[in-house]
Amino acid sequence: MAIDSIVLLTPEEASRPLVDRLHAWVATVDHKRLGILYILFALFFFVIGGIEATIMRIQLIRPQNHFVSPEVFNRMFTMHGTTMIFFVAMPVMFGFANYLVPLMIGARDMAFPRLNAFSFWLSALGGILLYFSLVGANGLYGAGNAPDVGWFAYAPLTAQTFSRGHSTDFWTLAVLVSGFGSIGTAINILTTILCLRCPGMKLGKMPLFAWLNLVMAALVLIAIGPLTAAQIMLTLDRYLGAHFFDTQAGGSAVIWMHFFWIFGHPEVYILVIPAFAFVSEIIPVFSRKAMFGYPIMVAATVAIGFLSTAVWAHHMFTAGLSSNANTFFVLSTMAIGVPTGIKIFNWLATMWGGKIHFQTPMLFCIAFLFQFLIAGLTGIMLSAAPFDWQLGNSYFVVAHFHYVIVGGILFALFGAFYYWFPKMTGRMYSETVGKLHFWLFVLGFHLTFDFMHIPGLLGMPRRIYTYELGRGWDTWNLIVTIGAFFQALSILTFIGNLLWHTFKGKAAGSDPWDAWTLEWTTSSPPPAYNFAAIPTVRSRRPLWDLKHPDDPDWKYE
Amino acid sequence: MAMNNSYTRGAPKVIIPLSLSMTAFAQAGAHSLSPTNIFAPVSTPADMIFGLSVFVLAVTATIFVVVFSLLLYAVVRFRKRADDDGREPAQVYGSDQVELAWTVIPILIVVALFMATARVIGAVQKAAQPPSAIEVVAIGHQFWWEYRYPALHVVTANELHVPVSDRAHPTPTFIKLLSADTDHSFWIPRLAGKTDLIPNRVNHTWIDPHETGLYLGQCAQYCGTQHAKMLLRVYVQSRDEFDRWIRQQSQVAHVGDTASDGQRIFETTACINCHAIAGTVADGQFGPDLSHLMSRETIAAGAAPNTPENLKRWIRNPDAIKPGSRMPAMELSERELDAVTAYLTTLL
Amino acid sequence: MNATPIMMSDRQLEWELPSRGHVAMFALIAAEAAIFAIFVVAYIFYLGKSLTGPMPKDVLAVPIFYTICLLSSSVTIHLAAHALRRGNIAYFRAWWFGTIVLGAAFLYGTAHEWHRLIYQEGLTISTNLFGTTYYSLVGLHGLHVIVGLICLSTVMAFALSGDIQQQHTYRIDVLSLYWHFVDVVWIVVFTVVYIIGR
Q: ipTM greater than 0.90, yes or no?
């Protein structure tokens, strides 16, 4: 492929006043720009969430520490969880989906560009609302600041009696508003994939990235509703005297748990399935082989989507549900391990017999495979309900889900950043600095999250601002905190690498990785209209067919 | 890439001795690593969970070793060499047999794990309560534990006493779990898995510790500011010692004549709104029962040792020891503090 | 600016994909259904669990007339869309107006019922669990009726100014889907509240 000139800014665009250029970004309905806005928004909140985590880790570096008060610590873990899930992980996945789905399916934009913009700005509003609580939440009793009820806000701790002031309401409103944005984006992604594919791209011919985002979008539509409903109920309780979760009036605290986790469990699949999508695009290209078992990968993902709606009460094993209920949820949770394992084996089989190139995107995906395997196995441990009666609500669970979210999802996300950075900016990042980021982060991640399992096994519950001497938890907490600093350092190299090379990197060309899906046929970055002529495709790897006319994929699919 | 090979066929020969030696090794040093180590069980529910956990760990460890090795092998064996000719490798799109193998084997593993798990769930949750069982009602408060022994007419706080249970003639303790305000969770790792205390709901748990001693734990469901210091102390005693403790706890509070000044201050200040002292006018329910305060080793649900100095510090300003606790500073003068503390130290 | 052409041979591909509007509206309906489902679950869960206060069978009167109004409005909106497809603008306007009238009648019925429940029976959202779940479920549905009526009225304004033509059938179809959804939700709510729950 010929190296094209970088078209971040044409001469005419560069001469427009800064205000005009900024306004173009604010008022944009272009899926590529909205994608980048989502990603930048997520990165901003990622840094904030990381600072919140660092504050907690410093407080926990030794027993009976006094770095922050219990009130502040409790706000930290609430804000950290809420920020990372709703204002980092979801937006960044929506951002990548926005940017890549139309390009990969040969469309000019998403199905509803204005809805796209509206959904983004709703999410942005949600983020601002959550942090406005820091200044705006002083309520009737002068109590309240940032919310401190935990990111899953169990009732009745969220009732007016126990949470005075408006901090809880800021949590509710911020998440509610961004939830509407999420539904809008999900409608957009679903409609785009079903209705805007280019000729020849039957559902069985579209990239796995598109399939997995389709499943993710469907899950968003089903899962966000229960959360929205629960939050409306909570607000009615707090302001109109309703009794949904009012145990004094016969209400049930357990039903909040049910409603929340009916959302909460599919939510984690909403986060991880796009990570699977990244890995499913990167591993084949860097192994120089087609994805092994494409139909099974699709079927496994759809199965995971369905099953994920039937496992929620494994978050409630300690709530005292009946043995029959507990047994059912053990079965459904263990069952979901089967299609998930199948996916790991298929990625492995894709690498098997290939020629693996160890550039930064692939390094992150390989680490993803190792780490996601471990995360899945600790998940199996937790799925054995009696084992969860010990491990649940302890640092073992915290270690498990951070292993999934950081060791799995974030690693895949880093891979995606490096893989598509050349397409989005037209420039290459530095491989050396990329590898430095990788190894630093591997070190920091494992120091923190491997050793975090141990205090859990030794009886340390979660969400405690300090702990007693003589429990045997001290050394492990120290190691965990040290790892956090390595991760922070590594993130700085990551941001520096991408920021610097956005403006100063070498031209990347339209297809620096010798890849096979449609986004690599456009210039880097793509023009506003994506494709001069809407392509027609005949296989899952249209570029492979072009590059290997003697041996095209459509002969074998 | 067949998965149905000698690795899995020989697995039982490896797993069983491995599990047994892991068990022995774990229990040998476990309780010295931590007084709340889940791998140092002394009571049947914790024992059963331990047994299940060894099986689950063995299975997951085996899966890990197998898959990890394959991944490592793939990454090393199939890396692009320096002398690569630039040609694409053979494109393999899938294999039905392989897919079948790595679907069926995990399903079988899931079935085995599920059956082992279901058995333990039934054994713990459906355990019958024998007539010899001690019945306790535990009520969670922000941020302390209330214990009632209805049949034995005892009300106390924060330190639970139970008799040791002989395996041959068990005397387990069956605990009903309630909450006065928000969610809590009762977790003493060496005795049992945790069970939540949820308002407007009755939960149950049981323990039958085989060894005497003090067992530690703490609240395991975030319940507000001082969730971290809602500690649990369970004293497992010989039958004689337990009976003696019960006798002492079921008496009315000790009344001496030298502490009447402090008692008067206690009874005319708001103390009696929250606290109860058996045999006096104080019958508040919001805070811990103080009838036999001095029989406890700690105050404020384990937040500080029970000494007169700490008692005085606590009454002067609870936030100094446990910021965010529900007891307000009583605004007493130094003289009043001394008098009340002296009175409380007579409550044996 | 280049885009590598990936045209295969000259043969024409039969390439028809579902319509955007319908797919998006079904997606929205799915999301809304999830929200309603939770309120219905809460209603059923709390049946018989109120500690005090009026019980459903004491105070609820089955709103047969207003239900018929709402369900008939599904018929009229269908007839309106049918008329527009045929190009019959006058009939379209008439049936569309009828839909709005029937929907508004339903809303009036709900308001009337609530007025009676609040002022005569003393049932509010904070009275007991029944009040909480009843007002929230019926209220959420009513809110969706209001939103629907706003959309329908907007279309009515366009229809009266002559801006709706036969080529807009597609958009009218998509909007009708929403209105039908609102009716289906009412069938569920009606069954749960007035039949099962009483």
A: yes
